[in-house]
């Protein structure tokens, strides 16, 4: 009950402070319009924002100064703020770099870029590098159960806390290096999601353009089929098909991962089909398509040389969003235990395996950080892709409001 | 009014037809399993005699079309078959299956209500919260508040459900022991206690759903703000709040209701992961468990229920948008 009273007290205090702020501002500036026309609600908003800001700074100060048992409570908060500041600085530097290096075109691009978009670009770049050079960067193999290392070494590398400097993020329940598995996870999780999205686009895009170009019964059959497939929630449908796929694959884990790629690609291609068909239908009625038809061009030429180049920009934006969906679906499936199969390192599976350590956060915050790092890695990439797509859509639609 | 009724009936018929086709799809998918139910129950070391006996007992020797209609008729009467995992071997071979602990329906029914409870609590929190937030973001668009909510909602849309769930567990259950992190709900539990245990999963789902609803509400209202009658209201000297609440909101209601229904449909997929994280005894957890042990009748039934709810909510969104939009109500 006291908790609610506290909240009410803070809100009322904000209201009073807001009113005071507006009143004082009006008196001091002798009725500047900014203060004179400020409604109480906006003044309240300013006060509330100031309170939240002060609370964040105060907590961060506590996190940096408090001693061992109390500081555990602020460990994650401190790390989150640290990471936030680090990323903001990195994104700002990256944008600065982009503004001064490169051709005229890229310089202009970076000049108009908001900080969120440059953060997104930078993150995607880092993930891509990690995925490509995982074999070089990772200190150990992803399946390697390290000889001589104990299982469940705590992250942090501090021997007093049950860590080991050789394994900065510790080892998992059967003694594999978590840092290596996180790096290989970029290769597996992101790589598989990327391949799945590409497959979905090839499938959905081709069928969508075919339906738009040919029309008639083919269009009807495909569209109604897609309607039915879309009537089942995609995660549920994927789980149902994975049940069957796991029976087909038997004990061959690699085959099951392959089936998963195909299943998710087919389910997701329905969404791509809708978009490709809608965009294609608008293009097919253009005069230049008519001209190409009169020239006697074949269907293949029409689709790939005439329609595709003109539909590329909406498809690209959709590719980013689809990738996020596919990535999250795969992560969810892996988290539920039916996605990417061991021994491949994968973030979703890692979260599931290490999740129980979160309960130790109050005594040993480092221990709890391993599962959150894996989950955070998933979230960070999707956030980054979303920021970039948001910016691209904003730019191409010319929306200024 | 009769045209409205006609359109609604048309949509309803279309929904029923979709559900019918979906049920065929689910049935066909399950029949693609290598071997059949009998082998699945008995495992690989089964003697041909035993397999034959079970096959006869379950009616698997009949053609697929006949079996499909039997399954459908049963499902319509609330009989969803028997669960493999709960059924013991003897009850299949014996003449009488005895006791109905194995029936899928008795397994699903209590869990179904638990899931509905979770979805209900989520909707009660999420809908008012996101609509108010959306209105505020539209009112103070392009301000610091708007930009902050934009970044915040974009991040929470793109995070996987289990990430949000573990973050909430970390801060609200482990570091500050305010709420229980396990939702061990049982029958006969008091309402208050039940609500307390449901709150954390409900908050997670709220975070997932709110972002979408809030962004769509904001977009719908901003879309309307360019109309001449809003300009008029502004020129009359009305306050920005009044312009939005009295003039823009009623016209934005149709897209907002639509978005709410669609997001409740989205809850259905979100519920699966969240129930697993919090060990909430709902239908989503049962579904995932059954998928892992390949308990086909349960998987089939859960799938049908999820698809049915999804289609129903989409249908509601469709009908709502027709009712609230005169242009759709009186097609030319």
UniProtKB/TrEMBL annotation, chain A:
GO CC terms in record: plasma membrane
Transmembrane segments: 6-24, 44-63, 75-94, 115-138, 192-216, 228-249, 319-340, 372-393
Annotated ranges, domain ABC transmembrane type-1: 186-393
UniProt record, GO biological process: transmembrane transport
InterPro entries from the UniProt entry: BP-dependent_transpt_permease, MetI-like, MetI-like_sf
Record's bilayer topology term: Multi-pass membrane protein
Family of the protein in this entry: Belongs to the binding-protein-dependent transport system permease family.
Identification of the protein by name: Peptide/nickel transport system permease protein
Biological classification of the source: Bacteria, Pseudomonadati, Pseudomonadota, Alphaproteobacteria, Rhodobacterales
Automatic annotation (TrEMBL), chain B:
Protein topology in the membrane: Multi-pass membrane protein
Single GO biological process annotation from the record: transmembrane transport
UniProt similarity note: Belongs to the binding-protein-dependent transport system permease family.
Short name of one Pfam family: BPD_transp_1_N
Domain ABC transmembrane type-1 span(s) in chain numbering: 112-317
Gene Ontology CC entries for this record: plasma membrane
Main localisation: membrane
Protein name listed in UniProt: Peptide/nickel transport system permease protein
Keyword terms: Cell membrane, Membrane, Transmembrane, Transmembrane helix, Transport
InterPro entries for the chain: BPD_transp_1_N, MetI-like, MetI-like_sf
Compartments, record wording: Cell membrane
Transmembrane segments: 12-33, 116-140, 161-179, 252-278, 298-323
Gene3D superfamilies listed in its UniProt record: MetI-like (1.10.3720.10)
